[in-house]
Write a structure and sequence with these properties.
The protein is mostly helical and 169 residues long. It is built from eight helices and no strands. Helices cover 74% and strands 0% of the residues. 14% of the residues are buried. This is DFFA factor.
């Protein structure tokens, strides 16, 4: 980065090279930096993808579980019934909802789905909030979940696009 920022004439004089060669050197160094940044971003995207796969696998494995008997979580979520104390949401989720300024950013996708499925009135009562605040929380959770799903779709698109391309040497 330092070599890129140095004026060409100064660097040419210091290295006893022509400014043309220094320009080529600085261009090459810039390309290396750009490639590293692209690799860093790709790595972050891949990590998001892997996290999304884990979440997807977790959801799929819960769906595929054999029914050994009625489960409280399934009763609340599947039947749409809700009590004043939603049992599908864990104490940890409630703590995040109450204490965090932006709880939708602290919850995993599965918990976001549970918050969205919960009745607004029951959620408001359980949190000690009014319905408007609980509705705003559910809307924020919906937006965050949508954003995450778009990221997963982008990753799938990138993966399918990259399958058709040859790997670089």
């Amino acid at each position: 980065k330092v070599l890129i920022d140095v004026p060409r004439s100064d660097l040419a004089e210091e290295l006893a090279q022509s400014e043309t060669k220094i320009r080529v050197l600085q261009d090459t160094l810039q390309q290396v930096l750009d490639r590293r940044e692209e690799e860093r971003q790709s790595k972050q995207l891949l990590e998001l993808y892997l996290e999304a796969l884990k979440t997807e696998d977790s959801i799929l494995s819960k769906v595929a579980e054999p029914e050994g008997g009625p489960r409280k979580e399934m009763d609340v979520v599947d039947t749409g019934t809700s009590s004043t104390d939603p049992s599908a949401l864990s104490d940890q989720v409630f703590a995040a909802l109450k204490e965090k300024p932006a709880p939708e950013l602290c919850l995993d996708s599965q918990d976001l789905e549970l918050v969205l499925k919960e009745d607004t009135a029951a959620l408001a009562l359980a949190l000690g909030w009014d319905k408007q605040r609980a509705g705003a929380l559910q809307e924020a959770c919906d937006q965050e979940l949508s954003k995450r799903l778009k990221q997963v779709q982008t990753l799938h698109s990138l993966r399918s696009t990259s399958k058709g391309k040859k790997t670089l040497p």
